[in-house]
Design goal:
Length: 430
Amino acid sequence: MKYYSLNHNAPNVSFQEAVINGLAPDRGLYFPENIAPLPETFFENIETLSNEAIAFEAIKQFVGDEIPEKELKQIISETLCFDFPAVKVEEDLYSLELFHGPTMAFKDVGARFMARCLAYFNRNNPDLHNTVLVATSGDTGGAVASGFLGVKGVDVVILYPSGKVSDVQERQLTTLGQNITALEVDGVFDDCQDMVKRAFLDEDLKSQNLTSANSINIARWLPQMFYIFFAYKQLKRENKPLIISCPSGNFGNICAGIMAKRLGLPIARFVASTNANDTVPRFLENGAYDPKPSKATISNAMDVGNPSNFIRIQELYHNDLTEFEKDFSSYAFTDDETKAAMKRIYQNSKYVAEPHGAVGYLGLKKEMKLNPGSVGVFLETAHPIKFPETVEPLLGITLEIPAQIKSVLGKEKKSIQINSYDELKDFLNH
């Protein structure tokens, strides 16, 4: 499998090169040259397969022969060491819980998969040393920190916007030490992401072997396909058209979902549910892609004004609005609507949704009204304990603290404050 740059001005590369480079030299995101659908028999028998077997079939063509089958299966086994239950919330409406991993956020899967791929590549080259540079709007930082903790030959540098991630999220990325360093940026997520992209293209930093663990990296992004396969596996018995609603910030999850559909997974529609950062809903209305500066909301991990992965979605739909409309919708919701949804879900079913999941629920409800007779799934991307300052007073409850979170609450936060790209560059070169 070869990967090409979506800016179409860089050499095609192997899976290993795409993982290690993160971003193409022309600043483009990598995209696979071919997407070969899986055989129909795979989908006919999917409910009889383990999650690990499903994931292997989904990902193997994108890795090719660069990681031997035995090692790839081991990587998948270590990645998928927790559950992904579809929990019934209402009639024909389910929450797919993606937060049962070590940092209680969906990004555990991509981070663990990528860390193990990079470790495999480094195993054959003991002199190779990589610096993983990542921007986070919430959960990416903690998941990457956990996934790469102690990986030989890899240092991790995480940029996060000061005061714009929750206390739990901040502790998960600032308390681990070892090969993990957190840089606290005076700005918003888009500032962090811009610094990361600029660093990749800086000739002065070539010797650092920089790579990204954001969803711009194919090894972080592609495993997110697994969730949609797992949802279908659990709900195939319903025998109804399946709608998937993804709370969307950088658009990695929904883009991976569309990839799953290209592999043959029978998903009827995808919904990109956003908060006030409504770049994509506006694009679907008027055909103009017009990013705006990000706005702060209670669903902070989705506070992205210029979502990186949307260019991959445009590629999948040939940037044709009529193709988008066949199976893709996008709606934006306010914080007030999000809070009302959290209350309604809890009152009706005692299910505790956090703000991101609630946005996904709202988009799903809207789409299901337009498509009666369907069954719907919204992705619950993080455990509510990540957002106690919103969830507890709103629902009048006290959340039990899971073991994964207890382990970081007592630790001391350690971060380095930076205000500019030059300060980031100085840090990387020191």
